[in-house]
């Protein structure tokens, strides 16, 4: 049984201003295996974030079935950790309290919460900053807290919606390396939304290329280049060429259609 | 050239700034009072109509400490009068804060409360609290209750409006993050929506405490036989404008102190906000 099963997902948004419906996701069918690192790759507006939100339970598909660990997704829940594009930390809580927020909601005592959160503070390299508020930390540090917060719930899948898009190039590279290291250490299933081919190739062992509106799966590419990956190696560039060709083909098709 | 003139007198300039920082708060009031004193002593108006600040201070001093009974029956009774007003302010304000936050959060969060409760409240809001005085007197008589009722009316709506606004403008991604971490409906309110709405709620509380003082004094002029407002109105009948002014100063001072207290609580509660706001800047 796959960790996530998407069966014939269709999502239609009603565009009130134009007075008609907008087909955003067209018949998405995808299996994601446990411990996979899957990158959903596509141009903006292709519905990749919508697909992630459907798995998270934030949005409902117009039709189709979404199963996580064999259970139908109906609402958000702590079995699916989400890392948002903006860190979306509670600004009134310190780093450690943000990370332990799930435990607080479960009614676990302060001392134990802090004990368990410290492990994740260390994991994302924020020791010394545990009592800082989000406004006192950089964007990269806040996103680390966001990742730690999701990991602490020990969810069966982690859903990430372009979490590094707002970071500078250097921080982004560091964070990508750290995320791969965390994934290798903790063996979890990650679904990572991105519009960057390079990011997808650095991170994923399965890259799902989506088409522009309406969002369809163009091709799911398995990519098992050993890590750490060298983004200048021939194998890396072969895969990059293949994916870029898929995307280019797609834009030519769209240009001809219009 | 510029760099020389900028850096050379650095030390004396720094001292001057330090000295000025101690004074900056008192410059405007000091000038105002000096001008007033000079004008009052010039004899352009009879002293009974415009008492000099020194006369007002004398009256205030006697009212507080009772040293020469220039304020007659009020001599030495300031604490009693101020306490009477402050208790009314506190009573009405506490009640208004409690109910205003409860109703505001309910209306902001739930469509049901918004539809059932809000139209009625919004219809009551434009009615000036003062216009309730006749009803307040026939319902509650002449005592603390009508005053507390008026204070409540004046303080309730600012708290209500700001609480509604605070809840409605909570970033929906916080709510999503809460749901993702397994918050139930109650926790969503107490652990996410309420703290996120606090800056707005505090803005409402600060407006409300000002209204509370205004309405206490109004109520005391009409419906109550004690407190600073009563002294003010009573002295007016006896043409004691020095006491009228002493009462006005007392009200201003107590209102200012209430706001300072509230601001201190707010700064403590919203400490997390300081790094990102103009309020928290150090310069």
Structure description:
The complex is a heterodimer of chains A (258) and B (283). Chain A is α/β, with parallel strands linked by helices. Chain A has a domain at 1-79 and 199-258: P-loop containing nucleotide triphosphate hydrolases (Rossmann fold), CATH 3.40.50. Chain A has helices at 48-56, 95-99, 101-105, 110-123, 139-152, 169-186, 197-203, 234-257; strands at 4-15, 20-32, 37-41, 63-68, 71-72, 80-83, 157-161, 189-194, 206-210, 217-222. The longest helix of chain A has 24 residues, at 234-257. Chain A is globular. The N and C termini of chain A lie far apart (41 Å). With 283 residues, chain B is an all-alpha fold. Chain B has a domain at 73-270: MetI-like (MetI-like fold, Orthogonal Bundle). The longest helix of chain B has 38 residues, at 185-222. At the A-B interface, strand 6 and helix 3 of A face helix 9 and helix 10 of B.
């Amino acid at each position: 049984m796959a960790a996530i099963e998407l069966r014939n997902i269709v999502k239609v948004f009603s565009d009130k201003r134009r007075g008609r419906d907008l087909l955003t996701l067209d018949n998405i069918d995808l299996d994601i295996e446990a411990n996979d690192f899957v990158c959903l790759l596509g141009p903006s507006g292709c519905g990749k974030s919508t697909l992630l939100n459907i798995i998270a339970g934030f949005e409902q598909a117009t039709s189709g079935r979404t199963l996580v660990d064999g259970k139908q997704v109906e609402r958000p829940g702590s079995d699916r950790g989400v890392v948002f594009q903006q860190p979306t930390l509670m600004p009134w809580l310190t780093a450690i309290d943000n990370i332990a927020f799930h435990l607080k909601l479960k009614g676990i005592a302060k001392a134990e919460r802090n004990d368990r959160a410290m492990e994740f503070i260390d994991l994302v390299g924020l020791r010394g900053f545990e009592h800082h508020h989000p406004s006192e930390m950089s964007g990269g540090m806040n996103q680390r807290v966001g990742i730690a917060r999701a990991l602490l719930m020990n969810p069966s899948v982690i859903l990430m919606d372009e979490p590094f898009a707002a970071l500078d190039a250097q921080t982004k590279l560091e964070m990508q390396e750290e995320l791969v290291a965390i994934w290798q250490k903790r063996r979890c299933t990650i679904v990572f939304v991105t519009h960057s081919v390079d990011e997808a190739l650095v991170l994923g062992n399965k890259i799902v290329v989506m088409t522009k509106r309406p969002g369809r799966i163009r091709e799911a590419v398995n990519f098992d280049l050993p890590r750490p990956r060298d983004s200048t190696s021939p194998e890396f560039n072969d895969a990059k060429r293949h994916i870029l060709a898929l995307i280019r083909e797609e834009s030519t098709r769209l240009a001809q259609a219009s | 050239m510029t760099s020389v003139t900028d850096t050379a007198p650095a030390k004396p300039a720094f001292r001057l700034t330090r000295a000025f920082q101690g004074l900056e708060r008192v410059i405007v009031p000091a000038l105002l009072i000096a001008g007033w004193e000079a004008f009052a002593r010039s004899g352009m108006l009879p002293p009974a109509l415009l008492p000099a600040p020194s006369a007002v201070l004398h009256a205030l001093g006697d009212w507080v400490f009772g040293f020469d009974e220039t304020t007659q029956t009020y001599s030495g009774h300031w604490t009693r009068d101020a306490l009477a007003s402050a208790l009314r302010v506190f009573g009405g304000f506490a009640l208004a804060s409690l109910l205003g936050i409860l109703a505001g959060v309910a209306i902001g969060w739930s469509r049901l409360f918004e539809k059932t409760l809000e139209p009625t409240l919004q219809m009551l809001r434009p009615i000036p609290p003062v216009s309730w005085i006749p009803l307040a007197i026939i319902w509650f008589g002449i005592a603390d209750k009508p005053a507390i009722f008026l204070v409540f009316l004046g303080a309730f709506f600012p708290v209500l409006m700001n609480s509604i606004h605070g809840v409605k403008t909570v970033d929906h991604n916080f709510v999503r993050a809460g749901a993702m971490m397994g918050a139930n409906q109650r926790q969503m309110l107490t652990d996410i929506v309420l703290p996120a709405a606090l800056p707005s709620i505090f803005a409402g509380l600060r407006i409300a405490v000002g209204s509370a003082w205004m309405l206490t004094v109004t109520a005391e002029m009409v419906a109550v036989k004690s407190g600073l407002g009563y002294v003010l109105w009573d002295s007016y009948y006896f043409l004691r404008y020095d006491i009228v002014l002493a009462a006005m100063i007392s009200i201003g001072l107590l209102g200012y102190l209430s706001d300072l207290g509230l601001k201190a609580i707010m700064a403590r509660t919203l400490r997390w906000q300081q790094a990102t706001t103009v309020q928290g800047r150090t310069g």
